[in-house]
Specification:
Elements lengths: L14 E3 L2 E12 L2 E10 L4 E3 H8 L5 E3 L7 E5 L10 H4 L7 E6 L6 E7 L1 H11 L6
Helix pairs in contact: 1-3
Length: 136
């Protein structure tokens, strides 16, 4: 597709780290005319993120990611990224600013619960598993 970079192939083996696991899956996502298969990463707790979004985060081009679908909504974010008044900011309190947090909303009240904390090393390993180039 014009304007998009080629996506590396998805890994066939699962990834494990930070007390969780992840697998590469293909998800049919809605597009303008129909649906399109998109490479994604699904964590053990069910949170599913676009693989390209995680690659962008590893490369330093994204700091807060949202799940591609499902209920409840989940976020994968760098601890220093949320604004102080956001619902996910309290989860980052006391965390390493370079850590990545996996959180999911707990209901219609907008509250969020912490699921997993990935150290910078674990997040880099997740990116390497996906074939991402890390930010220097």
């Amino acid at each position: 597709m014009f304007g998009r970079r080629a996506e590396p192939p998805l890994p066939t083996q699962p990834w494990a780290g930070a007390g969780t696991t992840a697998e590469a899956v293909t998800v049919e996502l809605p597009v303008l005319f129909g649906r399109k298969p998109v490479g994604c990463v699904r964590f053990a707790e069910g949170e599913t993120f676009r693989a390209d979004d995680i690659r962008d985060a590893v490369a330093g081009r994204a700091r807060i990611l949202e799940t591609v679908g499902g209920d409840p909504v989940a976020f994968l974010f760098r601890a220093d990224a949320p604004s102080p008044d956001s619902s996910i900011a309290p989860l980052a309190a006391g965390q390493d600013p370079d850590a990545w947090l996996l959180a999911h909303t707990t209901g219609y009240d907008g509250a969020a619960a912490l699921s997993t904390v990935l150290s910078p090393t674990e997040f880099a390993a997740l990116g390497a598993w996906l074939g991402a180039q890390s930010a220097a």
